[in-house]
Amino acid sequence: MEKTLNLLMGRQVSSPQLQALGVALDSTEFKQRPAVIIKKGRLFCQRCGFQAPRTDYALPDKSYYCPACLAWGRLTTTMSLYSIPEANDFKKYSQDLLEKKPRLSLWQKKAAKELLQTVKRKQERLLWAVTGAGKTEMLFEALNFALLNQQRVCLATPRVDVCNELYPRLC
């Protein structure tokens, strides 16, 4: 049971999903919140972020559902989502992780500064440029800031060579 609860950390699941896993809702570890809410006449799904006029997704019992979540199991305004907060027990770094600062052009420096500001504001950003434009090098200052502040980082790349380049510099 504890192994199942550990797998649920940081995830949002509905009561039918918990029942399917054999997990009882009487655990005090769970945080509960409404699955779908209505704000200013609009439907807002708290699992996937879907938003739309509520009238488009009404059910006969006068509740509303999220059409974007149907593949994961229907959520309605009468349901709750349950989660177990993640421990976020990240390594604490005491010094700058960048052994050497990458040499950047003027435009790369501008993009790197914007990326750093995005991380500081805890926002999302897509860095899109042609192959060989130096995207990897532009990321390092923002990565350094995030890791020094014990923030979670997800860096997605479709190329293995980028992973091989990053690994020794981040570990």
Overview of the molecule:
One of its GO terms (molecular function) is 3'-5' DNA helicase activity. Keywords: ATP-binding, DNA-binding, Helicase, Hydrolase, Nucleotide-binding. This is DEAD/DEAH box helicase family protein. InterPro entries: Helicase/UvrB_N, P-loop_NTPase. Pfam families: ResIII. By secondary structure, this protein is α+β, with helices and mostly antiparallel strands. The protein is 32% helix and 12% strand. The protein is built from 5 helices and 6 strands; from the N terminus they run αβαβββββααα. The chain has helices spanning 2-8, 15-21, 106-120, 135-148, 160-170; strands spanning 13-14, 31-34, 36-39, 42-45, 51-53, 80-83. The strands form 2 sheets. It has a 3-stranded antiparallel β-sheet with strand order 1-6-2. A 3-stranded antiparallel β-sheet has the order 3-4-5, with no helix packed on it. Strand 3 (36-39) and strand 4 (42-45) form a beta hairpin. Helix 3 (106-120) runs parallel beside helix 4 (135-148). It is extended and about 60 Å long.
